[in-house]
Amino acid sequence: MNQIKLNKSKYFSGLQCEKKLFLDLNENIKYKNNRPNNKKKLLELSFEYLQNKYSNELLQLYNSDKFSENFKTQKPFYSINFSLDNKDLRLNYDAIIYKDNKITLYLVKSAIYPKKYYIKELALQKYLIEKKYDLEIHTKLILINKEYQFTSAELNLDKYLNILDCTEKINQILPEEIENNINNIQKQIKSDKLPKKDIGSHCKNPYQCNYFDYCRINLPDYHVEQIPNQNKDLKESLTQLRISDIKKLPELESVTLLQKRVIDSVKSSKEYISKELPNIIDDLIFPLYFLDFETIISPYKIFPSTKPFEPIPCMWSLHREDINNNLTYSNYYKFSGNDPRDGFIEDLINSIGETGNILIYSDFEIRILNMIAKTHPQYASSIKNVIDRCIDMLKITKENYYHPKFKGSFSLKTVSKILGDENMYNMEYVNSGDEASTILIDLITDNIDADLRQYYEKDLLSYAEKDTLNLVYLYHHLKTAS
């Protein structure tokens, strides 16, 4: 294994998994990380804020060798985006201020709420500083104010940034806990063997690991992890049984109806169909509309009159089927850089008629429509009509149907695997909602290669159409099954 010098404190903020660390450090194994990286821009804004506040008052230091000298002479300074060495460790620090013989550390995170692993990361940074300098240390998080209203005017950093003092929380973390974490990580750094680590809740905490699929390559097709909504007691029972294959499980007590349905379906290799499903399908009112929204979510201003991380609807996809099974398609999209919401809701209301059930998957579209009704009250009555006609196909499926191939998941991508082409979403640029949202932002802000723009647009429109087409297929599958 190729050893590298660690220079990112994220490895020390709380060891998510020894195996993940090994794979992170092994240059031969690389997996794509689809999570958007919003921190770079927030760092720039945070640096701008600190420079505006302290540049006329404090000396800015770029060279960490000067830190000790200034500490000794008690000369105040501030520094941004720097590294400090402590024995064989090197940590990146977002910002530090030394003033009145006190140190204040700043950790920048593109989020609106403080999370436990942010606190652990700050605690580690504080711990290593304390090892070098016997000074009073304060710790702060720089987050984003979710109530900030974007306007056409320049960003007000004093109101946009949410700076939280975490000193009291961090002082409650025992040094022994941090030392133990560091020792475990250093042990893994020196190892040349892939650690043995069972899959578990840590695979998705604090976020889904890049190696989630890699670690499941040799697991049974129907692993007990696929039993949905497991509470602590059920997890402990499954661990004690030491059985990984659902097909080999004995009769379990205290499982929910959904969990029992999943287990029984896998054991029998048969789909589950409720007695109520035929009536539910027969009661649907034609014409049927199959609807899906695409939104963008950004911590930064894309359009005025929005807030950080507010979902902004930019596209909709709509299939319509009449009583004679005639299927038509329409959509809405706007990549011009102008606020799309007026055209979005106007075109939708005009396209969706006054009658007929609207089939959606989850209540996401209802939540977005309710948001539009608040920001665009002139459409409130028409939006209410749309919402009242919506039928949640996810809820229907979860309560009335299960297929072993779902493997415990009810995502539309998973459900679609029983409906026909399993490679339906196998496109070059857009194959998930996250990728669609990221590309939407790039198209709207014109942050995309001009030569590739048409291909991204084509994939995005095709992806949206496939989502609602899958709803059509799901409806027909449930109708046939019932």
Distance between the termini: 55 Å
Largest sheet: 6 strands, mixed
> What's the Cα radius of gyration?
26 Å
Which oligomerization state do the chains in this entry correspond to?
A: single chain
Helix content: 25-40%
CATH class designation of the largest domain: Alpha Beta
> How does the helix and strand content classify structurally?
alpha/beta
CATH architecture of the largest domain: 2-Layer Sandwich
> Tally of extended strands?
13
Task: Give the CA-based shape.
Answer: globular
How much of the sequence is in beta strands?
15-25%
Encode the helix/strand succession as letters. HHEHEEEHEHEHHHHEHEEEHEHHEHEHHH
* Mean pLDDT over the residues: 89
- Count of domains: 3
Unreliable stretches (pLDDT < 50, length at least 5) are: 1-14
- Numbering strands along the chain, what is their spatial order in the largest sheet? 1-2-3-4-5-6
Q: Which fold name corresponds to the CATH topology of the largest domain? A: Nucleotidyltransferase, domain 5
Number of helices: 17
Structural summary, described in words:
The chain has helices spanning 18-25, 39-54, 65-73, 116-132, 157-160, 167-171, 175-190, 232-241, 257-268, 277-282, 341-351, 364-375, 380-388, 393-400, 412-415, 433-444, 453-481; strands at 59-60, 77-86, 89-99, 102-108, 136-144, 161-165, 272-273, 288-296, 312-321, 327-333, 358-360, 390-392, 401-402. The protein has a six-stranded mixed β-sheet with strand order 1-2-3-4-5-6, with helices on both faces. A five-stranded mixed β-sheet has the order 10-9-8-11-12, with helices on both faces. The protein has 482 residues and is α/β, with parallel strands linked by helices. α16 (433-444) runs antiparallel to α17. It has three domains: 9-185, Lambda Exonuclease, Chain A (Alpha-Beta Complex); 219-268; 277-481, Nucleotidyltransferase, domain 5. A hairpin with a 2-residue loop joins β3 (89-99) and β4 (102-108).
